[in-house]
Amino acid sequence: FFFFLVKRFREPKHERRPWRIWFLDTSKQAIGMLFIHFANVYLSDLTEEDPCSLYLINFLLDATLGMLLIYIGIRAVSSIVEWQQWESLRFGEYGDPLQCSAWVGQCALYIMIMTFEKTVIIIVLLIPQWKEVALLNPIENPQLELAIVMLIVPFFVN
Fold it and tell me: pLDDT of 58-100, one tens digit each?
């Protein structure tokens, strides 16, 4: 959230969106990030593999391949929304006056895109070679491993 604020204040003043619209935009992104985080936590505990390593692999795939999939998903959905002329589902447009239903619809579309992204990542992780990827095996201290996976790597990757 801090980086969203920094980005906002670095934009030229005349290009900034009003606070209410900015909040609606960033809240969709925050909800999407929470969805992916909890999906990764849940998925990392489903197998006999090291949950920290599996979470880290999930996170890194989300930050690389996942970003590309989300970009493609947003472009595809936006094209369909434009083609069908569903004004309230146009990302970042909430009507005048603001309509909460537009935000809810856009948020639902964004979660659907995130679900698609996560499904593709899961399919990629089903490739047998991923079991051989042992990113954190040399780390013996579980607290250090957890700090690296949940704090240090996300700080630098995000």
Answer: 888 999 999 999 999 999 999 999 999 999 999 999 988 889 9
CA pair distance 24, 27, nearest whole angstrom: 5
Residue in 113, 127, 131, 149 with CA at minimum distance from that of residue 41: 149
CA 26 to chain centre: 12
Q: Which residue has the tokens 């094209």?
A: 79
Question: What pTM did the predictor assign?
Answer: 0.82
Both tokens assigned to 19: 């606070």
Question: In terms of pLDDT, which residue wins out, 88 or 134?
Answer: 88
Q: Please list the helix, strand and coil fractions of the chain in percent, rounded to the nearest 5, in that order.
A: 75, 0, 25
Top mean-pLDDT range of 3-7, 11-15, 103-107, 121-125: 103-107
Nearest Cα to Cα of residue 103 among 25, 31, 16, 34: 25
**151, amino acid identity:** L
Say how far apart CA 119 and CA 73 lie, in whole Å: 13
Which whole-number Å values give the CA distances from 49 to 43, 55, 134, in the listed order? 11, 10, 10
> pLDDT category, 133, cuts 50, 70, 90?
low
Domain boundaries, the chain: 19-157
